Amino acid sequence: ARVKTKSVEYRVHFVDYGNEDVLMASELREIDDDVLKNIPFQSRMCTLAGLRGPPQKSDYVEEAAMVFNSMAMGRPLSAKIETEDHDMLHVTLTEQNSKDDQPSINQELARSGWVRPLKYKDKRLSAKYRAGIREDVEIARKDHLGIWVYGDCGSDTEERM
Question: What predicted TM-score, i.e. pTM, was given to this entire model?
Fold first, then answer.
């Protein structure tokens, strides 16, 4: 866990599942720096390659998260690292031992309309991968699925307000 704010209570970010909680100082223990130097990282921050969720202030954030959870939680998954950006891994998630023609979770989310492509063209991702994601999102948009049910799901300008 990573401590985010200090006081009598601490806001803690659990890097394994990404959730946060507020804990009392009595619930925490300090780990000696010498011990930490000898332990490799046990988890890494990841994001779905080439994708972003619905606008943060939209009505679809919770539902998109629930759909993702239903696809990912409790299933043995493999993460293919498509690219790395600072401390963030950009991954494609697939069910372990899946067949090559079985869609990834990235594709399933795009096809069902719960994610958007990145605003910019990430040239570190293959052209085939980017084209596939664009195609899947466009199908969901045309069919008014998920966040596209009413057409455009909102702009990033609205996110910053």
Answer: 0.72
